[in-house]
């Protein structure tokens, strides 16, 4: 990790450790959000990490954003952070300076279409993360990206398993504040994939936290006169969790690094993102299962912290394409190759 | 809290250059090599092939030039190994010497031992096996009973080593034996020796047939077997510390996730014939795991290159890798439309038959799943 990234990691870690509390996570589940924290994050420039300096941003790399996304997952931060980072990035890519306030990102999923026709946006975008918190929505249209102001669309509230807002937005001849074309290398699917990339890193962060909390609990909790962690059966499960955690971290970082390479080279990073989302979504199932097993009944209570991460993992593994979705995508790509070309192809991919 | 360190590395251009060279060579050399033989992976034996590897300079790639090595990087070696495994090249004869015996001699041996032994390994003429397990000492390696008693000019060995892959084809074994009786400190009193397997007096090597009918591993019995003083590796009593380092080498390579790759290749070939694409998603999952394991394995190669201890991270990759290799025949079975057999009409069913049988050993050899997870649990601070 370079020095700048380390500084950013330390800043984010401190900010979230100090300000994201159990209480703030609980409050967010009944729609009382820690807006002061969001203000602090905004003032730190974290949301503009991927925006060029000439548009008021930091001109950071995706691998810098990974540090933030990982921390958002570790701390289960109940705010639209990665969503704003992405919205700001996509707008800037289309030459639009991100507006003040909260801008979230509305991807287009397979089978959905948002049209921009005669300067008006029409269509339905589903499960928009943090839609209700937004002052603007950056929506991917058949023509590029459009920035639409809150109030110029109809919003229906919905949520995920972790009670994070996942809202439906109906655009009906909405007049965008601005609209623009995405660069040629970007498609609706690659924008959707960036969402999967963010969720991959958030999941890796949540998994890290869960592993640490489980190790801590195993060392603290005594049964049969010994700490749980002294039992081989427990050690074996914890080691399995640790393997999945290590793989998740490696896969997540790999996806972001590939995305950085895609900006400068003639590669498409969708494979690394797909691999990360698939691998980590699978890990989420194993890790949540072992974590709850070791925590016993206390981990099944609302009172205990564990569920803030496990419920997010159960949601995030579905979001922006589940492991089934992305595995099928990878499989489709690989089956277009000759079987004997599998290895030569794989070795062209960045590591 | 960072329990492990899997820093990412990109393989340098010289590694990719070597990769192309190796690939071109293997395309030519192994053009007609049957799929079912490829599926034996690094268990496939062919001394002639190993000699050719030696001629190419592809054994002992990272070792000092003064012994005949090429002093190239661990990243280049990594790319070389990947290509050999991807092709299912019959590398078994020299694999252990290249991977761990040579490095053990280099690190702990005398200059005389290096001069005497390493050039033969590098030429692909001198093959090694591992003398660790015993009939009563498997995972509990520290409980070994084979002992070396000091005599004039050397030691007399008595005891039995088992599961010694390739002993009946090899020139040398590196054996871990007791040079002092067991004491309070279980890890004390052991030493490593070079065992000359061509010296027949006091030595019996009996192959043991495995469940697939292959004779790969052996029972090796020492009865007053003489080992000269100059064939002890390292100081008396340092055996445990040395064997721990040797095991880190043993567990650190790409063969810890690539053993079943021929079945993946055949599964893809088979799936392409299925108009319903039933295996598509599952193949995608396998590729996602493969790419992740490869990234992690390259990170371990980076640790070797920077001379940091890879033991913990290598255990993580080996544990995940063995599960991956073992899932492969189970997944292939789910999509099979015919029956697996070593005499089946298709490569897919032959390879599936072989790997289904071989795979159970993948989480035993080189340290069982349980031992690896014990090491990982220690890394977590649980033990």
| General shape of chain A | globular
Q: Which architecture of the largest domain in chain B would the CATH scheme give at its second level?
A: Up-down Bundle
From the N-terminal CA to the C-terminal CA of chain A, the straight-line distance is: 15 Å
Number of H/I helices of chain B = 12
Number of strands of chain A: 10
Low-confidence stretches of chain B: none
Polypeptide structure, described:
The complex is a heterodimer of chains A (351) and B (383). By secondary structure, chain A is an alpha+beta fold. Chain A contains 11 helices and 10 strands. Chain A has helices spanning 3-19, 22-28, 35-43, 62-74, 82-93, 188-220, 232-264, 270-295, 306-316, 323-334, 342-346; strands at residues 103-106, 115-117, 120-129, 136-141, 144-149, 154-156, 166-174, 178-180, 222-223, 226-227. In chain A, helix 6 (188-220) packs antiparallel against helix 7 (232-264), helix 6 runs parallel beside helix 8 and helix 6 packs antiparallel against helix 9 (306-316). Chain A is globular. The model of chain A has no long low-confidence stretch (mean pLDDT 96). Chain B has 383 residues and is of the alpha+beta class. Chain B has 3 domains: 13-127, Acyl-CoA dehydrogenase/oxidase, N-terminal domain (Butyryl-Coa Dehydrogenase, subunit A, domain 1, Orthogonal Bundle); 130-238, Beta Barrel (Butyryl-CoA Dehydrogenase, subunit A, domain 2), CATH 2.40.110.10; 243-379, Up-down Bundle (Butyryl-CoA Dehydrogenase, subunit A, domain 3). Helix content of chain B is 44%, strand content 14%. Chain B has a 4-stranded mixed β-sheet with strand order 1-4-5-8, with helices on one face. A 4-stranded antiparallel β-sheet of chain B has the order 2-3-7-6, with no helix packed on it. Chain B is globular, with a radius of gyration of 21 Å. Classes of the chains: A alpha+beta (351), B alpha+beta (383). The interface between A and B is large, with 56 and 55 residues.
């Amino acid at each position: 990790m370079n020095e700048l990234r380390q500084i950013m990691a330390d800043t984010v870690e401190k900010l979230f450790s100090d300000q994201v509390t159990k209480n703030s996570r609980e409050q967010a589940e009944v729609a009382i959000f820690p807006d002061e924290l969001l203000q602090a994050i905004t003032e730190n420039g974290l949301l503009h990490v991927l925006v060029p300096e000439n548009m008021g941003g930091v001109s950071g790399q995706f691998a810098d954003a990974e540090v933030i996304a990982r921390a958002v997952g570790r701390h289960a931060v109940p705010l639209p952070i990665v969503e704003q980072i992405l919205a700001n990035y996509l707008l800037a890519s289309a030459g639009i300076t991100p507006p003040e306030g909260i801008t979230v990102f509305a991807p287009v999923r397979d089978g959905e279409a948002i049209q921009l026709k005669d300067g008006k946006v029409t269509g339905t975008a589903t499960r928009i993360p943090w839609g209700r918190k937004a002052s603007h929505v950056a929506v991917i249209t058949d023509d590029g990206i459009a920035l639409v102001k809150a109030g110029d669309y109809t919003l229906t509230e919905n949520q995920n398993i972790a009670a994070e807002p996942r809202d439906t937005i109906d655009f009906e001849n909405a007049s965008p504040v601005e609209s623009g074309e995405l660069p040629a290398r970007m498609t609706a699917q690659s924008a959707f994939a960036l969402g999967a990339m963010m969720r991959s890193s958030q999941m890796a962060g949540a998994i890290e936290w869960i592993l640490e909390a489980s190790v801590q609990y195993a060392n603290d909790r005594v049964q049969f006169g010994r700490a749980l962690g002294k039992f081989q059966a427990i050690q074996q499960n914890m080691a399995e969790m640790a393997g999945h955690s290590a793989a998740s971290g490696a896969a997540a970082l790999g996806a972001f690094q590939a995305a950085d390479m895609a900006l400068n080279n003639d590669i498409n990073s969708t494979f690394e993102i797909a691999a990360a989302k698939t691998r980590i979504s699978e890990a989420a199932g194993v890790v949540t299962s072992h974590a709850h097993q070791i925590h016993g009944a206390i981990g099944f209570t609302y009172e205990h912290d564990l569920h803030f991460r496990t419920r997010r993992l159960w949601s995030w593994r579905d979001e922006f394409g589940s492991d089934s979705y992305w595995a099928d995508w990878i499989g489709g790509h690989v089956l277009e190759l000759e079987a004997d070309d599998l290895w030569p192809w794989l070795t062209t991919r960045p590591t | 809290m960072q329990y492990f360190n899997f820093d990412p590395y990109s393989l340098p251009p010289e590694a990719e250059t070597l990769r192309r060279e190796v690939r071109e060579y293997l395309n030519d050399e192994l053009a007609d090599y049957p799929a079912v033989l490829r599926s034996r992976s690094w268990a496939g034996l062919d001394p002639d092939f190993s000699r050719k590897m030696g001629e190419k300079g592809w054994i002992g790639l990272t070792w000092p030039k003064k012994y005949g090595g090429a002093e190239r990087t661990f990243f280049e070696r990594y790319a070389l190994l990947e290509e050999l495994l991807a092709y299912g090249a019959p590398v078994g004869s020299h694999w252990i010497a290249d991977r761990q015996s040579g490095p053990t001699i280099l690190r702990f041996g005398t200059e005389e031992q290096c001069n005497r032994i390493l050039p033969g390994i590098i030429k692909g003429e001198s093959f090694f096996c591992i003398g660790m397990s015993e009939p009563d000492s498997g995972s509990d390696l520290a409980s070994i009973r084979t002992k070396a008693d000091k005599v004039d000019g050397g030691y007399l060995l008595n005891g039995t080593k088992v599961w010694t892959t390739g002993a009946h084809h090899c020139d040398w074994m590196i054996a871990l034996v007791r040079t002092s009786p067991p004491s309070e400190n279980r890890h004390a009193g052991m030493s490593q020796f070079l065992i000359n397997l061509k010296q027949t007096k006091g030595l019996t090597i009996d192959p043991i047939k495995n469940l697939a009918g292959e004779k790969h591993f052996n029972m090796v019995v020492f009865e007053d077997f003489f080992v000269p003083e100059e064939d002890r590796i390292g100081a008396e009593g340092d055996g445990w510390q040395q064997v721990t380092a040797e095991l880190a080498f043993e567990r650190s390579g790409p063969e810890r996730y690539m053993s079943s790759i021929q079945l993946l290749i055949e599964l893809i070939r088979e799936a392409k014939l299925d108009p319903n694409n039933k295996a598509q998603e599952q193949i995608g999952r396998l590729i996602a795991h493969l790419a992740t394991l490869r990234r992690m394995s390259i990170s371990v190669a980076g640790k070797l290159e920077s001379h940091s201890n890879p033991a913990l991270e290598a255990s993580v990759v080996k544990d995940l890798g063995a599960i991956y290799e073992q899932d492969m025949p189970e997944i292939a079975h789910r999509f099979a439309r015919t029956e697996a057999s070593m005499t089946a009409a298709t490569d897919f069913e032959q390879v599936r038959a072989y790997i289904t049988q071989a795979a159970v050993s993948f989480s035993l050899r080189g340290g069982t799943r349980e031992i690896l997870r014990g090491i990982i649990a220690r890394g977590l601070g649980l033990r």
